[in-house]
Amino acid sequence: ALPPSATETATFGMGCFWGPDARFGAMPGVVRTRVGYAGGTEPDPSYYSLGDHTEVVQIEYDPDAVSYADLLAVFWANHNPMSAPRKRQYRGVVLVHDDQQREVAERTRADLESRTGQSVETAIEALDRFYLAEDYHQKYELRSTPVVADELEDSYGDAFVDSTVAARLNGFVAGHGDRDQLEALFARLDLPPAALSEVRRRL
Ligand code: MHO
Questions:
Q1: What predicted TM-score, i.e. pTM, was given to this entire model?
Q2: Phi then psi for 54, rounded to 5 degrees?
Q3: Which of 14, 18, 35, 140 to mutate to test the pocket of ligand 1 (most atoms within 8 A of CB)?
Q4: Parent domain of 184
């Protein structure tokens, strides 16, 4: 498949960023994922000096293949929008990139409230700055998968974070995606048999 000509970006806070990195990474139409810190004011946050920021996943996607509303459906279904966690680090938040995103986010939040009759705690705010998290948090599930991680670090090096293949594999090893998707990807890759069977075993 050709890479999309124009991608769009979505940014969500929905608890520890390792989980959503994998979940969105397996979604068709998602081109890459990154985890980082956003939604606060502290300059140059890091994992151990987060200030008022929140852990977020940033998703670059092909709008011809997946819509912002599709991503939001996954977002709403995979955190608890009805309760605000004690730590701001883990709050639910949609960090919108433009007015169009804000409109869809607000509409889907209103739908959820009318459907459940409960008030949603998840915030919708404009994204200011996104700070990329440390390497060891990127594609965390994949990094902690024996055999596969070593193989990829060798072949991708610095391109690991931005790789679509790494995003998909990160999803598959966490149990997201389906078998056909996995086999289609494997047909294009040159991974050693031990790595292939380790990924297959987890999906
Ligand atoms: N409970 C998880 C949170 C990590 S996430 C990057 C842990 O510390 O293992 O906040």
A1: 0.95
A2: -125, 145
A3: 18
A4: 141-202
